[in-house]
């Protein structure tokens, strides 16, 4: 085998190894991207879940505020009616009390995952449902005098005053708890959001590192092929010059006896 043929064979072998390395690099890059994508998806799902909890908490705080407002409006309307009766005040008291009960039911669906808040809701229910029913009966009376007497009784009832104080305390405690949860869940959502960004950065960096590593190896392989081919060509040139310039007769024949190569000394000897 001539040096040139050896160089070509070495080049083909190196090219084959380079192709295998390319496929290996691609496979590793794909695995890295898939793993990073899976981690990023998990972080994104965590971010979504935390964002939903933040929204959930915002709505709970909003309804606690609504409940406090409705109960307060109804109670003030009763007191105002007891001082100066007016049909509008009667309607306002009954409407706000009914709305408070609906808000209470709605609020329970937003804090069902918090046993402590559920206990407060149950206590509020025991206070507000009888209170709202009493208001409704009072203002549903036909006789104006009966309505006024009922309103004054409710407004001056010490037990009702105690209930209103308890309602304010309970809703205040609930709002404080939801505020704490809001801060906690917002921080968790921000952390999860940062995790998504970190996973994307890791995926990009990992892909770049893998690509750079295999690109560097391929460059070294190509340089090695070029060096080997250059060395083989130099060797072949030197050998050919030696054959041509030697005074010894050199020739090669094929299996059939035909001449394949003769040097200058062989030609000069004819």
Structure description:
By secondary structure, this protein is mostly helical. 88% of the residues lie in helices and 3% in strands. It has 6 helices and 2 strands. The chain has a two-stranded antiparallel ribbon. A hairpin with a 5-residue loop joins strand 1 (251-253) and strand 2. Helix 3 runs antiparallel to helix 5 (158-245). The longest helix has 88 residues, at 158-245. The two termini are 28 Å apart. 19% of the residues are buried. The mean pLDDT is 78.
Please work out how many helical segments DSSP would assign: 6
The topology string of helices and strands comes to: HHHHHEEH
Shape: rod-shaped
- In terms of DSSP E residues, the strand content is under 5%
C-alpha Rg (nearest Å): 46 Å
Q: How many DSSP-defined strands? A: 2
Determine the mean pLDDT. Answer: 78
Structural class assignment: mainly alpha
**Distance linking N and C termini:** 28 Å
Which blocks of ≥5 consecutive residues have pLDDT under 50?
none
């Amino acid at each position: 085998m001539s040096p040139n043929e050896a160089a070509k064979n070495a080049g083909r072998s190196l090219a084959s190894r380079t192709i295998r390395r390319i496929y290996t690099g691609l496979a590793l890059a794909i695995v890295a991207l898939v793993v990073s994508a899976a981690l990023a998806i998990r972080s994104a799902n965590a971010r979504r879940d935390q964002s939903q909890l933040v929204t959930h908490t915002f709505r709970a705080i909003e309804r606690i505020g609504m409940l406090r407002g409705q109960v307060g409006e109804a109670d003030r309307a009763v007191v105002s009616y007891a001082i100066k009766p007016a049909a509008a005040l009667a309607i306002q008291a009954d409407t706000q009390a009914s709305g408070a009960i609906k808000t209470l039911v709605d609020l329970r669906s937003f804090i069902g995952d918090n046993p402590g808040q559920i206990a407060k809701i149950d206590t509020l229910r025991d206070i507000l449902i009888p209170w709202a029913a009493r208001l409704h009966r009072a203002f549903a009376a036909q006789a104006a005098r009966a309505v006024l007497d009922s309103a004054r009784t409710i407004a001056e009832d010490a037990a009702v005053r105690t209930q209103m104080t308890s309602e304010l305390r309970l809703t205040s405690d609930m709002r404080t708890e939801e505020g704490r949860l809001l801060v906690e869940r917002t921080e968790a959502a921000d952390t999860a959001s940062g995790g998504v960004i970190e996973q994307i950065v890791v995926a990009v960096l990992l892909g770049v590192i893998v690509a750079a590593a295999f690109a560097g190896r391929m460059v070294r392989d190509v340089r090695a092929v070029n060096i080997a081919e250059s060395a083989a060509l130099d060797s072949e040139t030197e050998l050919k010059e030696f054959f041509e310039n030697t005074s010894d007769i050199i020739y090669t024949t094929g299996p059939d006896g035909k001449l394949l190569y003769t040097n200058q000394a062989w030609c000069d000897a004819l």
